[in-house]
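Incident log, entry 3
Record: Gluconokinase (206 residues)
Problem: checksum mismatch between cached and fresh output.
Input:
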Amino acid sequence: MSGAVDDGAAAAAAAAAAAAGAAGAAGAGGAGAAGLDARVLVVMGVSGSGKSTVAAMVAEQVGWEFAEGDAMHPPANVDKMHAGTPLTDEDRWPWLDVVAAWIRGHLDAGTNGVVTCSALKRSYRDVLRAPGVVFVHVAGDGALIEQRMSQRSGHFMPTSLLKSQLATLEPPQPDEAHVTIAADRTPEAESAEVVERLGLVTIPRA
Ligand SMILES: Nc1ncnc2c1ncn2[C@@H]1O[C@H](COP(=O)(O)OP(=O)(O)OP(=O)(O)O)[C@@H](O)[C@H]1O
Ligand SMILES: O=C(O)[C@H](O)[C@@H](O)[C@H](O)[C@H](O)CO
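Fresh output:
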C-alpha cells in the first residue's frame, strides 16, 4: 500500500497549508516569531495502529511538544479497557475534554504540539477541532494491527478490544483537515511522510 491513501484532495491541501503555517513560523518549536498561530497535530486511529510511535517520532523530528492522550484518560476508563470492555460515548466525552483543553492551551500559548488520541468518531473530532488542528490518521488493516497488539507487552489495552475499535472508527472525511498515513511501513517511513506531506521543518540532530 502506498503511504498516501484516500485523503480528500481538499482535506490534504488544507492540512498541509495549516501545518505549513506552523513550519514557517517555528520549525524549532516556538510559534510566535513570525506572528503565525501555533499548530497542533492530533495523531489518531484505532488502538495499536502505531499512533504513539509515529507521533513521538514526528514531535522529536520537528521539536514540538508531545503528549500521550492515553495518559489523559480518567482511571475508570483505563480500568474498563483493561477489563476488556469498550468505552462508551459517555466514557469518552470527559477524556476528550481533557485532550481538547491540552490542544487549546497549546494553541492559545502559541506552542506547537503533537498529541495522540484515537478520536475514532467524527463527533469526537468535533470536540478537538479548532483552527490550527490537523488530524493525522494512522490507518492499517485489522490483521496487521492485531499482530502488533498481540506482540505488545505492558499496555492496558487488550487485543480483544480491536474489533470494537475498528467498528467504531469513522475515518476523517474530505472536509476535515487531515492526512492519512498507511500503517504498514516502518515508523521512520511513516513519520517522514507526515513531515513531508505537512511541509514541516525538521530540527538538526544534536
Ligand atoms: N510502523 C510500525 N512497524 C512495526 N511496529 C510498529 C509500528 N508502529 C508501531 N509498532 C508497534 O506496534 C505496537 C503498537 O504501536 P503503538 O503503541 O504506537 O500504537 P498506538 O496506536 O499508540 O496504540 P494505543 O492507542 O493502544 O496506545 C507497539 O508495540 C509498537 O512498537
Ligand atoms: O477511544 C478509545 O476507545 C480509547 O481512547 C482507546 O482507543 C485507547 O485509549 C487507546 O487506543 C488504548 O490503547
